[in-house]
From TrEMBL:
One of its GO terms (biological process) is cellulose catabolic process. Residues 645-715 form the Carbohydrate binding X2 domain. Belongs to the glycosyl hydrolase 27 family. This is Alpha-galactosidase. Residues 1-32 form the signal peptide. Residues 386-459 form the Alpha galactosidase C-terminal domain. The lineage of its organism: Bacteria, Bacillati, Actinomycetota, Actinomycetes, Propionibacteriales. It is an enzyme of class 3 (hydrolase).
């Protein structure tokens, strides 16, 4: 994904001030000593902010208005910041908003120790006076910086405060290496002790000013560069250690690489997961719907990584003024909902002196704010549709449910409680309307959810209901070396048994298909983010004579599948450019869809990316437009291991006979057979004997001549994932309030025994060994518990692997 040239220039111009080589006039500026406070009290939360990061922060950032206003610097003057602080104090602070974050451009030089100094032009009475005003309003203040050190500071060889014998000339990696996205500064060599002392001196200076927050921009891997040609991880670690002793919140930006999520979680309190939300429409709009829409597939990958201590940052929430935001009212509400259900930092990007009544309504709904501050990131039931149900299980056993209509028409949207894990009735409340809607037995349907609109619900289970909790739920606690999936999972999957029905007096049936599944570009299971268009009847040789296309850099498609490989098939043409390909959230390569005009035009059905060695399981491919005038998607070819042997058969109406095939999985895993969505009847239409599946001739005789696909379904692990450990003594625990609990998990040849404790008492040792791998078996249950809080704990005793899949508990009747 690439930003516009304009956005790069604006950000670079502002960021350049942070490491600018402006030497101090007379070397006579502040010589503030290191912060006198010791390191913050020990806390179990990661990141330098300690308990302050137990919940996502709420506040305001100057950046959206800086790029909206032709004179961006006017948005961080002393008068403007004081006006914003006062507006927050009057309008938003009673609802939890408290951070005033000053983005790039606040400084214009350095002191005699190479540390940044505030702009005297912006702050004629000193930045400290502004910070003091913000603090006097009961708020917190943040500043901005980037990795690296400028050439001028290196050449000046300034002494480092509090580090005798160290100078800034000692700090860079030699030979010099680019230190940030824009090439403003150079990398610091953190193998040298003086390097950490330099960062400490700046962090301590910030601490002496009373700084509460630091945004660290241009962090790599991320920020458009993930090949490690730029790598700011050492900077992140050094700044984290320096800020920790000052208890300063540390926020990373931008578009951080998810493959290093564990690193960001260890050293930071938040991380931007995507590119800027701003549209860079100076004087016209702050943002645009495509910049919101593209966040959904990103959050589907990132949600598991957020929690107390560190949060997924979606950038500024620009929903406060309809004349500036660049979105419809429905889109503004959808954005506010997405931030809230994702437990993302809620920081406003608008001019807070000009919030309209609808913007205030969105930003001050206490029930919606409570969803955000509960810190329970929601996740989608499926990304295979543009009408998406996102949900989170809360600590009180209620569910937060968001029904997002990302499609192109209004639509009724239904949430089935069983899909959430709720077996029983639920009371439904509309959080935006602040209205109870009633109690529903098994599902709820929201009528006429508008285009790009949303309904935000709270579903409260009723007495006697049971709740299934997936292994990756944030309420599940793991102790020891555990990993999610890593080919220990078995996903649900289906395979077509194609029966060629013939009549010896009729023409022969068509050739039977292979095991490669072709997914056309108009499949509803492909999720398009951005401004995509559909074109058919082109007559250029496209698969099924149609394509999906877009012109917007950053627009993307994603598709989730079960299999071992996938091809991205598209047209190549001189009007097309590069596409970044991600598999399971990991960047794989940039592929070219450009065709030299000398080689012709519009070459259809070209395989521009292919992978065939994926472990058999669930995967997602995502393609992101990087360059060129157009990006097209024609089809995806998915390769799957065969679960039927053979996967084709022939039935002759003039010589009828049963059709039998062998199942490639345990027959107990067969979930059913269907034709065009209509289930066949077991025992009548088909039978299973051992691994032999037989379709009766009586059923087949009613099929028309030609090829008929029977969908043979196999169940998988709950939500197609598990957690696994190989370490004896590793454990998983779950706290619940109820009267009963069950543990449902896999049985497999590589498993052994596990001990199950309830409220600290060993209740049972269960054996999880089985000759074949089977899914979602109830291996432990306890009933008749007192209606109170309980803890179930499961400990690996022996065997190669222990898998955890589902814990189910029952609410008192």
């Amino acid at each position: 994904m690439t930003r516009s040239v304009r956005s790069r220039v604006l950000r670079a111009a502002l960021a350049g001030l942070v490491v600018a080589g402006l030497l101090p006039a007379g070397l006579s500026t502040s010589t503030a000593a290191p912060a006198t406070t010791s390191a913050t009290a020990a806390t179990e939360l990661p990141g330098p902010a300690g308990d302050k990061a137990a919940r996502p922060y709420m506040g305001w950032s100057s950046y959206s208005m800086q790029v909206y206003n032709p004179n961006g610097g006017s948005w961080i003057t002393a008068d403007q910041l004081i006006a914003q602080s006062d507006a927050m104090h009057a309008k938003l602070q009673p609802y939890g908003y408290e951070y005033i974050n000053i983005d790039a451009g606040w400084n214009d030089g350095i002191d005699e120790y190479g540390r940044p100094t505030p702009s005297k032009k912006l702050y004629p009475n000193g930045l400290q006076a502004v910070i003091d005003h913000i603090h006097a309003n009961g708020q917190k203040v943040g500043l901005y910086t980037i990795p690296g050190i400028s050439q001028a500071v290196i050449d000046a060889k300034l002494p480092i405060y509090g580090a005798p014998g160290c100078t800034t000339g000692d700090l860079p990696v030699l030979p010099l290496q680019k230190g940030d996205y824009w090439g403003i500064g150079y990398r610091i060599d953190f193998s040298k002790p003086c390097a950490q002392k330099y960062i400490d001196s700046i962090a301590d200076l910030f601490g002496s000013w009373g700084l509460d927050f630091l945004k660290f921009d241009s962090v790599t891997p991320g920020s458009g560069i993930s090949d490690l040609s730029l790598d700011a991880r050492d900077d992140v670690k050094a700044w984290s250690q320096a800020l920790k002793r000052n208890n300063i919140w540390f926020e990373l930006s931008w578009a951080l690489d998810i493959n290093y999520a564990d690193y960001w979680k260890q050293y930071a309190n938040g991380w931007r997961i995507d590119w800027d939300v701003e549209c860079y429409c100076t004087g016209t709009a702050l943002t645009a719907w495509p910049n919101i829409n593209r966040l959904f597939p990103k959050l589907a990958e990132w949600w598991r990584h957020a929690g107390p201590g560190g949060w997924n940052d979606l950038d500024s929430l620009d929903v406060g003024n309809g004349q500036m935001d660049g979105m419809t009212k429905d889109e503004r509400r959808t954005a506010a909902t997405l931030w809230a259900v994702s437990a993302a930092p809620m920081y406003v990007g608008n001019d807070m002196t000009r919030l309209d009544s609808y913007g205030l309504e969105l930003l001050t709904n206490r029930e919606v704010i409570a969803v955000d501050q509960a810190g329970r990131p929601a996740h989608p039931l499926s990304m295979k549709t543009n009408r998406q149900v996102w949900f989170a299980l809360n600590s009180d056993s209620s569910y937060t449910v968001a029904l997002f209509n990302l499609g192109q028409t209004d639509a009724d949207m239904t949430v089935n409680f069983a899909d959430l894990g709720l077996n029983g009735a639920g009371k439904v409340r509309d959080l935006w309307a602040r209205k109870d809607l009633g109690t529903f037995a098994s599902s709820f349907t929201a009528k006429d959810v508008p285009i790009h609109g949303v309904r935000l619900l709270k579903v409260t289970p009723q007495k006697g209901a049971s709740i299934s909790v997936n292994d990756d739920d944030l309420r599940v606690s793991y102790d020891g070396a555990w990993q999610r999936n890593d080919n220990y999972e078995v996903p649900a999957v289906s395979q077509a048994l194609t029966v060629g029905v013939t009549d010896s007096s009729a023409a022969k049936a068509a050739d039977l298909p292979t095991r490669t599944v072709e997914v056309n570009n108009n499949s509803p299971e492909i999720v398009y983010s951005g401004n995509w268009n559909y074109s058919s009847g082109r007559g250029l040789g496209d698969y099924q004579d149609d394509v999906q296309w877009t012109e917007g850099n950053g627009d993307s498609f994603s598709y989730s599948f079960v299999g071992t490989g996938v091809d991205y098939v598209t047209e190549t043409d001189a009007g097309q450019g590069d596409v970044d390909i991600y598999i399971d959230g990991e960047f794989k390569q940039t592929v070219s869809t450009y065709l030299d005009p000398a080689q012709g035009h519009n070459k259809p059905q070209q395989v521009v990316y292919s992978v065939s060695d994926l472990p058999n399981g669930s995967h997602t491919i995502r393609g992101v437009k990087k360059s060129g005038q157009f990006m097209l998607l024609d089809k995806l070819n998915v390769r799957q291991e065969s679960l039927l042997n053979p996967d084709t058969a022939v039935f002759d109406k003039n010589a009828p006979a049963d059709v039998s095939v062998q199942l490639g999985r345990d027959p107990a895993e067969l979930d059913g057979i269907a034709k065009a969505g209509q289930d066949l009847v077991k025992g009548t239409d088909y039978t299973v004997d051992g691994n032999a599946l037989t379709i009766s001739k009586a059923y087949l005789a009613n099929l028309p001549v030609g090829n008929t696909a029977l969908d043979v379904r196999f169940r998988g692990d709950y939500r197609d994932d598990i957690h696994a450990t190989k370490a004896d003594g590793a454990s998983v625990s779950f706290t619940f309030t109820g009267t009963g609990v069950e543990w449902c998990t896999a049985l497999a040849p590589d498993q052994g025994d596990a001990d199950v404790y309830v409220d600290g008492k060993l209740v049972r040792r269960v054996n999880l060994h089985n000759d074949t791998r089977v899914t979602n078996r109830t291996v432990f249950s306890a009933t008749g518990l007192k209606n109170a809080q309980h803890v179930v704990r499961i400990v690996k005793v022996n065997g190669d692997v222990l898998r955890n899949d589902t814990i189910r508990y029952t609410i008192a009747k």
